[in-house]
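Attaching the record inline, Q. Sequence:
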Amino acid sequence: MKRSKPNTKPLWRGLLILYSLFMLWLLFGRSAGWIEGLTYEEQLGYNRNLKPFFTIGNYLWVVFHSDNAYLVRHCFINLAGNVLLFIPVGFLLPKVSKALQNFLRFFLLCFAIMLAVELLQLVTLLGCFDVDDLILNLSGMSLGFLLERITRR
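Structure, as predicted:
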């Protein structure tokens, strides 16, 4: 007699909700980074990077060439964190939605979500808009998707 597989979707959904709440707190749960004496428009100018690999390149240079332990740690944590913290998205989304087991759909949804997050961080000044964050976050999500694929088989 064939055994039926247990329905694990509620578990994956619960984990995704908890993870999402944690990430919302992490991404938006701090005070705005106002620079005294600047207008809102000037603040927006300081809180954005539209050049791909600019921040990543600067952080990698610091990691490999600086002898300032604080800066090296900060840059490494920023680079690794922007990848590692988003791996669960790639692992959990395909578990809760059959439609998101298609990589293109998955990637487009993740891109839209991360673009919205980055824009929201910019306009609220609760972070900055950095195209490199998009690149790193999407890399982490894609790694999670790959891990989910590997473990599914």
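The mean pLDDT is 93. Strands lie at 48-49, 129-130.

More tomorrow.
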